[in-house]
Amino acid sequence: MQKRMLGNTGERVSVLGLGGFHLLEVSDTDASALINTFLDEGGTYIETAAQYGEGESERKVGLVLKTRRDECFLATKSHLRERQGAARSIDESLRHLNTDRIDLLIFHHVQSDEELERILGPDGAMEAFIRAREEGKIRFIGISGHGVPDTLIKALQRFDFDAVMTGVNFYDRFNFPDVEAKLIPLAKGRGIGIVGMKVFADGLLWEYPEDALRYALSLPVDTLPVGFNTMDMLKTDLRVVSSFTPMTEDEKARISKDNLLFGNYVCRLCNKCLPCPEGIDIPLIFKYEGWYDRQLRDRTVRTPPDFALRDRLRFWFENMGKAREAYEALEIKADRCTKCGKCTPLCPYGIDIIDKLEYVHFKLTEERIESISIAG
């Protein structure tokens, strides 16, 4: 399997990684079979987290590591923010994983500046991480976050992290564009390893495995840990990775234009609707909607399973507060729209911009604009 250097760590890791969350869904026997097959096929990057099933995922990984520890680059995560709790979590992870060392220990799901301050402040979890590194329990330190990357950007500017973990997929590129525009270039420029997650957008892209993997692998990421709970899923991922060719700009444009997930609702941030006569920054407002609910509630009638998946994922990253605060700070909001109609014909994706502006204003303020419909 192709390998890439993980930042400045000096370690080469497989481009396809094994993500441990979905091991919760299978038996010990099936989990071991998946992990062993992954290693047999040349995979090296295995990642889990203490919070996955309160150690259950780590324990299942540990069943295989009893005999194959030296064949993998092992990563896990701690969700605790204080020194004492984090120190206990590290020791528990080592026991669950049947090992005396963790290659990469990641601060799990750091979503706010307040959390970052707790981690880096006096008696914060960073003290436990550094102590564990000095004792040889861990080798490298990373941090992860979901959705809006502003806190991760601040983190990389304040501490010399070895790796950063962030979502990368062809759907959320339009909801969280600063991941590719700011976070990844910052990490790359500082030699920080880039671990890409959410390649399938938490299952939203399950019907597009080749496009999803090829898009993410075409970014300057070092490894992509993905979750698979069947051998067929693993074999599909291995097949795509083994025949990988970088996605061209034309192919990326095809996905964003033709994929049914986007339809005529999701804003692709092309800015062709501008300028607005009233000074409304239409793409920025739609980006804040992406922060809020990933543009997943679009007032389209769907089958019950499709609706249920979208409804489950829309607030998955818990960025709603950031979205509403950012929108509130705008001097010119969507309610300034006079419905002149100049913008809608300019959208190459057929978005009814006036209707969408009304709906987004409701999402971000719960205030109606005239006769706004909130069905769905």
List the domain count as a whole number: 2
- Total beta strand runs: 10
Indicate the proportion of strand residues: 5-15%
**Low-confidence parts, pLDDT < 50 over ≥5 residues?**
371-376
* Helix content class: 40-55%
Q: Name the CATH architecture of the largest domain.
A: Alpha-Beta Barrel
Q: Which structural class should the secondary elements be placed in?
A: alpha/beta
N-C termini distance: 45 Å
Identify the strand order in the major beta sheet: 9-8-7-6-5-4-3-10
CATH topology of the largest domain: TIM Barrel
Could you give the order of the helices and strands? EEEHEHEHEHHEHEHEHEHHHHHH
Class of the largest domain, according to the CATH hierarchy? Alpha Beta
Name given to the CATH homologous superfamily of the largest domain: NADP-dependent oxidoreductase domain
Average the pLDDT over all residues and give the rounded result. Answer: 95
Number of helices: 14
Q: What is the 3D form?
A: globular
Rg over CA atoms, rounded to whole Å, is 22 Å
The biggest beta sheet is recorded as: 8 strands, parallel
Note the topology:
Layout (H helix, E strand, L loop, with lengths): L2 E3 L6 E3 L1 E4 L8 H13 L4 E3 L8 H13 L4 E6 L4 H15 L4 E6 L5 H8 L4 H10 L3 E7 L5 H9 L4 E5 L10 H12 L3 E5 L11 H9 L6 E3 L4 H12 L6 H10 L23 H12 L10 H10 L6 H9 L24 H13 L11
Parallel strand pairs: 3-4, 3-10, 4-5, 5-6, 6-7, 7-8, 8-9
Antiparallel strand pairs: 1-2
Helix pairs in contact: 1-2, 2-3, 3-5, 6-7, 8-9, 11-13, 11-14
